[in-house]
Design goal:
By secondary structure, the protein is of the alpha+beta class. The protein folds into 2 domains: about 60 residues, no CATH class; about 45 residues, no CATH class. Helices cover about 40% and strands about 15% of the residues. It is built from 6 helices and 7 strands; from the N terminus they run E-E-E-H-H-H-E-H-E-H-H-E-E. The radius of gyration is 15 Å and the shape is globular. It starts with a strand and ends with a strand.
């Protein structure tokens, strides 16, 4: 059984491992994800504030600048630990016992707006 979980309102910063797109769910999507990711990063790096404001639907310059991060070279966390919001806060993954965490890692699929379906792990 798989449990599907919608994306969260926010994401936590930080990380422990280098980004490795080949570990994402559905390995056959890797070429499409890579193309999309590089196009996204190109838009972010070259986009002016007006373009970025329209792309992300935000107007505050400080908020826009947070999206100009080079996510390809950022450290990563498990998706279940990266996301925050009502469902994720209620789940309280860090405080679950090891067996419960392992179940979530293996059975929960999250939906990333950028990557599509991804494992909780």
């Amino acid at each position: 059984m798989k449990i599907l979980l919608a994306p969260s309102e926010t994401k936590k910063s930080g990380g422990t491992a280098a980004f490795a797109p080949q570990v994402l769910l559905f390995e056959s999507l890797l070429p499409y994800r890579s193309k999309l990711l590089h196009g996204y990063m190109n838009c972010i790096q070259k986009g002016d504030m007006t373009t970025l404001s329209k792309l992300f639907g935000i107007t505050k310059v400080t908020d826009i600048l947070t999206y100009k991060t080079d996510i390809i070279h950022e450290l990563t966390l498990k998706a279940i630990e990266r996301y925050s919001g009502v469902a994720f806060d209620y789940l309280d993954y860090p405080h679950l016992d090891t067996m419960a965490q392992q179940y979530i890692d293996e059975h929960v699929i999250l939906f990333s707006n950028l990557f599509g379906p991804i494992r909780a792990s």
